[in-house]
Amino acid sequence: MNRVAICQPTVILGGRLRVILGIVEVLNEAGIVPDILAARIRFDPAQVVEWYGRPIRAHFRLLPGVPRLPVDTLTVLFNISLWWYGRSYALLINTGNSLLFLPRSQNVLTYMFFPRKARLITPDVSIHLPGKRLPLWSRHRLQRLILRPLYHLSKPDPKHTIVCMTRFTREALRAVYDLPSDLPVVYPPVEIDRFRASPHARPLSVITLGRFTPDKRQLEQIQIAERVPHIPFHIVGFAGNNPYYQNCRRYIEEHDVRNVHLRPDLPFAEMLPLLQSARYFLHTTINEPFGITTVQAIAAGCLPVVHDSGGQREIVIEAALRYRSFQEVPAVLSELERMGESERCSLVRRLQEHVVANFDEKIFAKRMRAILLRYLEEEQCLRD
């Protein structure tokens, strides 16, 4: 019998895969080479070692016969398929964010980034776009209408284990399920040493990081920059063939915004020195369940300015660095500019101490190891 499978409906390069690989590394240390079960894999698995920067041992297993479906419907079908494909494993580690139809006869440990049920019940397009409603007739609205009754009737299996990515995740999960208040929180691993830079006197500039999408709100970043034309803004992110990126470019041209520099698809080797030389980092996603780029920016010596919601509150523990409305951002920057250089550097150092103590990959490995090893030993999965 194979020992462990990590179950993720769609696997792409990004933050979630970083967590999955962190779990793989802990399992490898215990002598376990897991399978990664997926309905879709949107990259060449051979890229993983290059992207991750060190070798890991895992087998990517693509489940056959799964049709192309919207993400929420695919996730439900994937969970149902685990009743068949998962039965040869002693432990399933679910990273798909859904508790619906998980096999009840299996040992299941869920690492919850943010519950799919919470996303489905909102009337908004997204939890990140509050107030923007779905069109009355749309594929996404129809999908939600079909799936909501299923999620409404579902209950977590008390025999399964749930680990939450952040306290914000835990609150969202408990809002839609009857679950205890002491569910464990294990923050995602961040390679802090890769970004680390000491705070020092830096020229006045703002940097943002994130894929160009409406959720990341680069258009709002540009509009903020319009109000502080003396501050250079560097907006960095993956663009590809993205209509939203083109909208951002068009806005800059039409409004003659001269202090914004779009940096699409910037290689890491060029992004890092830009991050390590910026004075401020701006994050504009609302209800971000975690926000790995904020941790990276703090490690790089930036002073973060973030929305007062989601997991950002757990990263940026200084309330003066959080805002409720985008209209407040220029005032926050002005207030920070009134500080002396030594006061700003001291603030960055306090934040750096916080992120090292809570979000470094070594902390993730220690906390996940304690959960995994205890679980595996209880289920006698470590037999040779």
Largest sheet: 6 strands, parallel
Low-confidence stretches: none
Distance between the termini: 11 Å
Radius of gyration: 22 Å
Order the strands across the largest sheet as they lie in space.
5-3-1-6-7-8
Explain the overall architecture:
- With 384 residues, the chain is α/β, with parallel strands linked by helices.
- The protein is built from 15 helices and 14 strands.
- It has helices spanning 15-29, 47-52, 71-85, 116-121, 139-153, 167-176, 192-195, 218-227, 243-255, 268-277, 292-299, 312-315, 329-338, 341-359, 361-378; strands at 2-7, 10-11, 35-38, 40-41, 59-62, 89-94, 108-112, 161-164, 206-209, 233-237, 260-264, 280-283, 303-307, 322-323.
- The strands form three sheets. Strands 5-3-1-6-7-8 form a six-stranded parallel sheet. A six-stranded parallel sheet has the order 11-10-9-12-13-14, sandwiched between helices. A two-stranded parallel sheet has the order 2-4.
- Strand 13, helix 12 and strand 14 form a beta-alpha-beta unit.
- Helix 1 crosses helix 15 (361-378) and helix 14 (341-359) packs parallel to helix 15 (361-378).
- The radius of gyration is 22 Å and the shape is globular.
- 39% of the residues are buried.
